[in-house]
Amino acid sequence: DTTSIMPTPSLSHLGFARGVAVPRGRHRGTFGRFARPRRVPFTVEAYAHDGSSAARRLREILDEPGCVSMPGVHDALSAKLIARSGRFACAFMSGYGVAASRLGDPDVGLATLGDMVDAGKSICRAAGDMPVVGDGDTGFGGVANVRRTVFEYHAAGFAAVSIEDQVFPKRCAYGKGVRVVPRRDAVARLAAALSARDEIRAKGGDILVIARTDSRMATNPEIEDNFKEAILRCFEFKQLGADAVWAEGPRSGAEMEAFNVAMEGTRTILAQVERPGVEMLSPGRCAELGYGVALYGLTLLSASAAAIERAARVMGQGDQDHPTSKQRAEVMESGAGLLMPFDDLYDAVGFNEHYDLEDAFDGDKFACAEDPGAAECAADFGADDESPEPEPEPEPKPNWTDEVNAFYESDSDDRKARDDQYKRFYDQQRLKNGEGGGFFGDID
């Protein structure tokens, strides 16, 4: 294990009793990828019961030069499609997206820890080897709730969890009335999250904690300079040992550059939402500004909602043609249709992989259950671990006693003659086997 722990700073300035401390984090080194030959279809490939291996992969991704594009996913299917595309190294489970897709509600704190963890388990499983960051909101309560959130997200399979400084219950950062807790409470909240993270690491697990501030968007009257407050909070988060920092809602490129200068040496995230009058920046441009992650949290949810509304409009036109008729016309005109072709949808949700799974475990391939000597058994299990052929057993030596008994039991009308003949044959056989002597003594 390459983990090392630095001396623990005191938190007495935050109101904690002397001696209460939180270890500073230090990034682990890179880990190698160990490939194993795949002998069964992808659908049955094991995935970790927690996010430890995913956290290590995410750390490697974030440590690479440039800026990684991180799309937001809202359910298992969206995560699966993103992973299948092969175009993205990681993804983000959006709290906004889960509230909308799972509850049909706005992101105003209605989604509970249970809702998020349950959705996250399905999302992380569907994402396969692609690491997923989980939106941990405010941690769903006090510092004990924050610690529990980190533990639950780790167990669900997330590579990282983001914790923000809004008041509880929180709301979308672009909604009305956003407020944040005082700075010292924000730092205490993060300290609780980092203590849970370090407990996980001390037990051999791993998860990253991303510290987020919404103070740039906050309406708190006591905050005089929102951007300065955002930098001060993220600097405290950085000093405490956050794996990455995230200031929501910078207003200009100048603010973005200034923020990254202040956070030098720490991973930074820029979250972007498609809103009127907002220019969406590419990952390349984000890298130029100093960011390591370009998060597009609502793009896929917005695209999904638009596609559903568009199809619903066509289907709801009464006696008009079904969307498949419009599909044919649009495909001919632009090459892109209203609907995903059925065969593509069939494959996307996993039917073909499921059939591969059924074929791999077809009962006919396990003939060894009825016939241990069947060739199929060796072919299915350990054919690459060839064992040496067993040596043939030596042929048994002839038993002269059996020969004598066979002679004695042969048909004969004269019992006395047969007995005499048996005695003489017995003695001859004894001599032949080198034992000497017999009924009649030595025979020449």
Q: Could you walk me through the main structural features you see in this protein, from its secondary elements to its overall organization?
A:
There is one protein chain. With 444 residues, the protein is an alpha/beta fold. It is built from 16 helices and 8 strands. The longest helix has 20 residues. It is elongated and about 130 Å long.
Task: Give a summary of the structure in a few sentences.
The chain has 444 residues and is of the alpha/beta class.
How is the secondary structure organized here?
Blueprint: H1 52-63, E1 68-73, H2 76-85, E2 91-93, H3 95-103, H4 113-127, E3 132-135, H5 143-156, E4 160-164, H6 183-202, E5 208-213, H7 226-240, E6 244-247, H8 253-262, E7 267-272, H9 283-289, E8 293-296, H10 299-315, H11 323-334, H12 342-348, H13 351-360, H14 375-380, H15 400-408, H16 415-432
Parallel strand pairs: 1-2, 1-8, 2-3, 3-4, 4-5, 5-6, 6-7, 7-8
Helix pairs in contact: 2-4, 4-5, 5-6, 6-7, 15-16
